[in-house]
């Protein structure tokens, strides 16, 4: 049981925490808010180079302007620098956008060796045009991935068979798989008529109405 729990990675990434320097003696495990991302990437660069390269490739698939991720050591600390196309000097964390940092952290979680990765509201700070690519990245990565969201725009890029609806009934929280719900056929007809899955959810067709 303990080994199975160690294979579960749960995150709600915060750009403020992702910008922080890490001490090089810290444990190289990606934390909930991502505050030790730099140390985690340094470990991957030194000890798991192929996984580090996969993180870079995943980030470039989302943000093509990125050329290289650099875990930069200064004294006894490390921080994340980004080399971008057209710039002579790498970007230090305070000059990297929130969306780029969150995309880097998401890619790091997906290729960190966990068997199950849970990402809370991964769409935050990420450009809407990247959401389809983000969903594809989650599907194609090695672990099983659970995304929690309140965004109809992210849901637009999901498939009905991938969706679970979470609802509160009194003091009880219930989770239902859309593909097993009686509303599925109505949702499918709505999609065939040109609607989107996000619109179906937002309009209350499948429960869990905001």
Characterization of this structure:
This protein is an alpha/beta fold and 210 residues long. It has 2 domains: 2-148, Rossmann fold (3-Layer(aba) Sandwich), CATH 3.40.50; 150-210, no CATH class. It has 9 helices and 8 strands. It has helices at residues 2-6, 15-18, 37-47, 49-62, 98-110, 131-140, 152-155, 184-192, 197-202; strands at residues 8-11, 22-23, 66-74, 77-84, 116-120, 144-148, 164-169, 172-177. Strands 1-5-6 form a 3-stranded parallel β-sheet. A hairpin with a 2-residue loop joins β3 (66-74) and β4. α3 packs across α4 (49-62) and α4 (49-62) crosses α5 (98-110). The longest helix is centred in the N-terminal third of the chain and has 14 residues, at 49-62. The chain is elongated. The two termini are 36 Å apart. The model has no long low-confidence stretch (mean pLDDT 92).
Give the strand order of the largest sheet, numbering strands 1, 2, ... along the chain.
1-5-6
Number of helices: 9
What pattern of helices and strands is seen along the backbone?
A: HEHEHHEEHEHEHEEHH
Overall tally of domains: 2
Can you count the beta strands?
8
What is the terminal separation in angstroms?
A: 36 Å
As residue ranges, the low-confidence spans are none
Largest sheet: 3 strands, parallel
Mean pLDDT: 92
CATH class of the largest domain equals Alpha Beta
Helix content: 25-40%
CATH fold label of the largest domain: Rossmann fold
* Named CATH architecture of the largest domain: 3-Layer(aba) Sandwich
């Amino acid at each position: 049981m303990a080994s199975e729990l160690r294979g579960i990675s749960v995150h709600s990434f915060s750009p403020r925490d992702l910008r922080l320097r890490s001490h090089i003696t810290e444990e190289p495990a990606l934390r909930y808010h991502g505050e030790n991302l730099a140390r985690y990437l340094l470990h991957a660069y030194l000890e798991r180079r192929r996984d580090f390269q996969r993180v870079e490739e995943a980030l470039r698939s989302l943000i093509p302007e990125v050329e290289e991720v650099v875990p930069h050591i200064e004294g006894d600390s490390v921080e994340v620098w980004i080399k971008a196309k057209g710039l002579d000097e790498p970007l230090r964390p305070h000059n990297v956008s929130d969306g780029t940092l969150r995309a880097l952290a998401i890619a790091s979680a997906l290729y960190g060796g966990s068997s199950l990765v849970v990402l809370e509201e991964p769409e935050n700070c990420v450009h809407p045009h990247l959401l389809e690519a983000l969903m594809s990245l989650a599907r194609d990565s090695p672990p099983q991935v659970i995304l929690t969201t309140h965004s109809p725009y992210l849901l637009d890029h999901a498939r009905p068979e991938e969706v679970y609806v979470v609802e509160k009934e009194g003091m009880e929280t219930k989770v239902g798989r859309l593909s097993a719900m009686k509303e599925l056929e109505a949702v499918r007809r709505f999609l065939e008529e040109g609607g989107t899955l996000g619109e179906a959810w937002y309009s209350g067709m499948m429960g869990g109405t905001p």
